[in-house]
Amino acid sequence: MSRLLNVEEPAAAPPAGPSMAAFLALGFRPLYIAGAGWAVISIALWIFTPQLLGEPLSLVAWHAHEMLWGFIITIAIGFLLTASATWTGFNPLQGKPLAALCVLWCIARAGFLLGGIDGFWVATAAELLFFLGAAIALGRVMVKGRSRRNYGLPILILALGIADLLFLLAALDGNHIILMERFDLGLIGMAIVALLIARRVVPFFAMRMVQGLKIPMLTKSGQAQMIFSALALVAGVLVQITGTPMTPGSGPHPLPLVMAASLAVTGLISLGQLLYWKPLAVLRKPMLWILYLGYAFLGIGLLAAAWQFSNLFDPAILNGVLIRSATHVHLIGLAGFCILIIGMLTRTALGHLGRPLALDRSMLAGHWLMVAAVVLRLAALWPSPASVHLLHLAALAWILSLGLYLWRFVPMLIRPRPDRPAPVAAPKQPATAQQPAQAR
Asked: Which of 101, 111, 114, 440 has a Cα at 20 to 30 A from 417?
């Protein structure tokens, strides 16, 4: 009889309703929803109704900006604002300050979309304040929690904000070449953040889910990875300062060669690390292989960027596809970042929401749809009569993937954890005393 009572008792408790306090308890809750929702809307606008996009950002500039700074970096900041609570013992943002940060993000999205020079400058100011607020919040808890190994993260967030401003100023000038070079600065800066995050959390997630799996820390290769990726970023900044040409056919130059070599070494290190992570051990774990796949594409994308920036190869090779900026941009930004993102959106949300670490059918379908979007978009890069159709199919797969995520996770993200009736307001204690181990 006691066994029957134990089975029935949990069902008697009604699920908690939506709660603003829960919604604003940690950064990942509103920013995961905002980033994923905007990714659906922005791709739908870009592919199916581009006539709705206004000046002063051109069509390509708006798309590139909103994918990198409006979606990818937003998700990264949401993750960092949450993970830093575990790393330092203090929650960097919650409640009204977190709501204010989200309002700045919304103002930026609306200003860039509606167009007009006044809206552009309002959006630019709001976006820079968004990056500044996130960096200050992260820096405060890093210092307070004496998390010295993470002191560089707030600086990287500020650097991404500066790259954003440089990109927006180039967009106003209408110089497409400079625009894409500055976009590459943002892309490389985000790659540093992605490599830093993934190298820490992916092996940790794998060892927790695969019984008996042991993965080395690879500290030395990780340090080398950060040094070479930072060197590539510095070389890219110097290219902008000196006005060194990087267009195909302009010939090799010292700074672009340094940038290319640094990216190539970073990419090779990433692929080497992946082998040490024992990928065959996670083939039956979709929550893990999606992260491994994204990390692999990130390494491949860095090699493709090195190929282009070096300017050493014949543009006719592979019909010129490898020297197109769209190739490395989509290998890093779509295949690398976004496959990692769909995996991280799922895994970290389940963990921090106190849910079982398992994929249901809709979550698994979302993973496969993101992979399909990547394959179709990369296939569309090859010039052919089918390119437009492949592009539309890729957009549909993307929208369905993130749409499924929102459908499945928004009800959870706006409610308290099932093992906790309400979030603790303004915690003074370290986060380790407030969050059960399974949430981290």
From this structure: 101
Distance in angstroms (rounded) separating the CA atoms of residues 192 and 198:
10
Q: What percent of the chain has pLDDT over 70?
A: 88
Phi, psi of 145 (to 5 degrees): -90, 0
Residue 171 in tokens: 């967009």
Query: What is the tens place of the pLDDT at every residue in 35-88?
Result: 999 999 999 999 999 988 878 888 899 999 999 999 999 999 999 999 999 999
The residues near 8 (Cβ < 8 Å, ≥ 6 apart) are none
Closest CA to 381 of 331, 317, 312, 336: 331
Contact by Cβ (8 Å): 226, 195? yes
Model confidence at 421: pLDDT above 70: no
- Determine contact, residues 71/83, Cβ cutoff 8 Å: no
413-437 burial by CB neighbour count: b if 16+ within 10 A, else e?
Answer: bbbbbeebeebbeebeebbeebbee
Beta strands in 17-160 (DSSP E): none
Tens-digit pLDDT profile for residues 290-323: 999 999 999 999 999 998 888 776 655 555 555 5
Q: Which of 327, 314, 216, 320 is nearest to 272 (CA)?
A: 216
Burial of 271 (0-12, 13-18, 19+ CB in 10 A): middle
- What is residue 227's three-state secondary structure? helix
Where along the chain do its domains lie?
Answer: 19-174, 225-416
Cβ-Cβ contacts under 8 Å for 261 (sequence gap 6 or more): 306, 310
Query: CA angle, 412 as apex, 411 and 417 as ends, to 5°?
Result: 145
Measured at the CA of 84, the angle between CA 83 and CA 88, to 5 degrees, comes to: 130
| Tens digit of each residue's pLDDT (9 = 90 or more) over 239-275 | 888 877 666 555 567 888 999 999 999 999 999 999 9
